[in-house]
Amino acid sequence: MTSLHLIVGAGPIGTALAVRLADDGHRVRVVTRSGGGPAHPAIERMALDASDATGLAAAAAGAATLYNCANPGAYPQWERVWPPLAASILTAAERSGAVLVTMSNLYGYGPVDGTMTRSTPLRPSDHKGVLRVRMWQDALAAHEAARVRATEVRASDYIGPALTPAGSLLARYASATLGGKAATVFADPDQPHTWTAVDDIAATLAVLGRDERAWGSAWIVPSNPPATVRDVLQGLAARVDAGEPRLRQLPRWALSAGGVVIPVLREVAGVLYQFERPFIADGTDTTETFGITPSPWKPLLEETAHAWHARAAGT
């Protein structure tokens, strides 16, 4: 049955979700400040400041689902931009009756000894994680008060051909190594790390927005077995004959010193624990409940390698 879905944000996740829903025969309305978004006959692009709750509620009228795929920009902007934006999206979902599905990350778990699952306690160690936890708790409280139906999708660092160096550390490193240059990495490149495919995130969002078993809980996107930064960069390079990646690890003290004058480096330091120890997420509950499985790793790496290599080469 055709239904209307409203998506806030047109970054890699919002775009992939919009195209997936449209290809499945649904009507999609994408809201961004600029009115941008993917071109598709079933996708309407709307210019709107999503922090305007009244305007967003009007845009969500008649929508079955409201997807929060917003990206407020660089870390230093989060404390200023996220609270009013998240509050507006929650209000719009309440007023419109749309199911609220929030795209989130793993920051709320903080440093964890072992594997993260959806039952792992939320113990953020950085203000960005505290903020994400507060957003979820606000939505969950509204859900438990029967004011809204809400769920949250949590993913690890992204991988996929659509990503750019501006939005992904891995893509930033690969932009150098696939171009034959050395990459400066912020932490230990030999720690196991979970990487989540953009298309798998979109698939999870689409399913959870329409399945009431998801509502009232948060879910981790199913991902492939963990791989180190070095392993991934080697795998990408091998597929385009780019040679062995050369990596230089930036010392922690240098990052901390740079953070004194460069705010974004200070913010990166706050989540660097994710690359200084094993960072492993387990989406088994999501797979067992909804049947969602991760994209096969080798084809994902192949497609990503060619897209990123072409970008690094400027073609």
UniProtKB/TrEMBL annotation:
Domain NAD-dependent epimerase/dehydratase: 6-207
Pfam families: Epimerase
InterPro entries xref list: Epimerase_deHydtase (IPR001509), NAD(P)-bd_dom_sf (IPR036291)
Protein name: NAD-dependent epimerase/dehydratase family protein
